[in-house]
Design brief:
20 strands, alpha+beta, 10 helices, binds manganese (II) ion, 354 residues, four-stranded mixed β-sheet, Creatine Amidinohydrolase, Creatine Amidinohydrolase, Chain A, domain 1, 2 domains, six-stranded mixed β-sheet, 33% helix
Length: 354
Amino acid sequence: MNIEKLISSLPDYADGFLITSECNIFYFTGFECDAGVLLATKNGSCFFTDSRYTEAAENTIKCAQVLDNADFPEVFTKACERFGVRRLLCETSRMTVRAAKRYGELLKDTELLFEDDISFIGNIRRRKSEQEELLIEKAQRISEKAFTDVLRELRPGMTEKEIALKLDFAMLNGGAEALSFQTIVVSGENSSKPHGVPSDRKVGFGDMITFDFGSVVGGYHSDMTRTVALGSCSDVQKNVYCVVLEAQERALRAIKPDVTCVSVDSAARDFIREKGYGDCFGHGTGHGVGVEIHEYPNLSPLSRETLKPGDVVTVEPGIYVRGSFGVRIEDMVIVKENGYRNFTQFDKNLITIF
Ligand SMILES: [Mn+2]
């Protein structure tokens, strides 16, 4: 059980965790809920939620007692007493200042520890099990099938919004329970913004179009990006595409256990710089993916981590020529003992749509 991994990582100076984020509650209990908190200790655990969710929570959560929030704070104080919690380590990344103040006022005999960095919670989630791998694989298959269908329908004169909507429909209709994030479809000069928003711009011949999208299956996300050409493209666009593709493949080749995340990033970044586009690649080369679309580890120049088997990461360098166009290519892989396995099977050669 994932909650056992959490409890066994409890530092000596604390008696329990207060988990407040939806993604960690899901990861540690298996229950998806945006209105609950998890108290996890060596002596027992409780999940507090309101009456809208108690029945479903009781059916799903086996690792913690489900308690109704209606009796808050007494019920929470009693649980802390029962489990001998005097120092409670709080997950701060998703707790509002107001909630932190309230807990402080309510819990007289329990000291709340707010630490900036309890990154070990994020690190617990890094090593994906076979079952998690399977869910991510399923999500990726749905995304690729949807993308294939949408490319077949793509015509000049369609707006970015229309294309994005078609892709969203195809993913949800194909079995995605949700979208990983708001789908990005950006074309022409709008594609020079790495995270541009689909607009009413109509796509036309000569445009490069970047698609960044993903499906969620069983709570697990997928993430992929492809840039395609509509009609024809210039030599400059073609060259930029080739540079991004080579950078992406260099980063992929660098992936194996025990290499630093920085070295994977620089495999892509150094090549892009060599080709004269260093100023056109501002973001990191990749990020972890799982119950959140962005999680540990990061493949960036600032990363301090080393890749380990079970890490799921994206590899997505890009070149963005301000006011003109952009290209990004993104695959998602899982690190294996002997290298990695690529979830993404979709073609990476430049596709030109006529
Ligand atoms: Mn990504």
